Amino acid sequence: MEASKYSSRDLNDFDIIINRDQYHIRVFWARIVGSDRKSLLTDYTKHTFFESEIVLNGSTDFLLGTRERVRVSSSGFIVIPPDTFHQVIESSENGARLIIAFSLETHDRQLDKVISSLSELRPMECSAAMMALLDILISKPYEDDTVRRALFSSVLESFLLEIFDIAKHNHIVSSAAASEDLKALYAVISYIREKHGVGVSVKSLSEHFSVSQRHLCRLFREQTGRNVRDTLNHEKLTRIEELVTSTKLSLYEIAELCGFCDEYAMNKFFRRYNLINLSDFRRLQNNEHPAGRRRAAHTANKPREK
After folding, report:
1. All domains of the chain, ordered by start, with CATH?
2. Alpha carbon distance 59, 90 (integer Å)
3. This prediction's pTM
4. DSSP strand E in the chain: where?
5. Quick one: which of 40, 116, 122 has its CA closest to 79?
6. 39 falls in which pLDDT band (50, 70, 90)?
7. To the nearest whole percent, how much of the chain has pLDDT over 90?
8. Which element (helix H / strand E) includes 65?
């Protein structure tokens, strides 16, 4: 599809209800966020409904909670479960995405278990149902007539059922966590988190756990959807953010603790993922933190000494 079709636009007033024996779905709204870079960068948000975020063009990086970073490229999507803090932290210049907000209630215990695994889903690729849905929402003007509403409802249900199928597969895989490969993977991830990714490399992990680098990289790609290096960088970023926001250590001291040769190298690494330097990040966090606001208010109201 042409980039011009991705201009910002609201597709409200859907309010479509899909009621079946096993589940009840309600679609509140769908919204296209266009190529305006600023509109793609959002504050932390948390909702009581599911969000399906489909990347129409370019790529988008999501931060789920405070740890998990997920990149979704063109023609892919991610499902964000209810009550999950999430934020779009980066998008390519020509980025655009479609957001579908929906609630989901299940009337089946087995399906409940499957749906619960949606919180562990990684980026998924566009399917035939997804393409048909995009065609209805984007390529053609939306008209609130009975036939079009029924068509949209049918295609949307097909898309959601595809999500359930992927969730079911993930649920089966997670239930088989006793396998030796997964045990090894969990041990590696725990080790990386314990070290905060500092002083750790693919080679050192391979030697420490007596597993080939090729096999280790394959395990990470298949089971986590990201490579080992991305995981190491994620842990480093988390550690840097933690030290910057919760300690009074200088950036030079934090750089030493996080395995960087100097403050400049750490700043360059941080900006690559967060589009902001660490000094501004620390100042922003201190100002926005409730305690920071209280301190600022107290100082503002304190009488000046004569």
Report:
1. 3-175 (2.60.120.280), 180-294 (1.10.10.60)
2. 8
3. 0.54
4. 9-11, 16-19, 23-33, 50-57, 59-64, 68-73, 76-80, 86-91, 96-106, 124-125
5. 122
6. low
7. 15
8. none
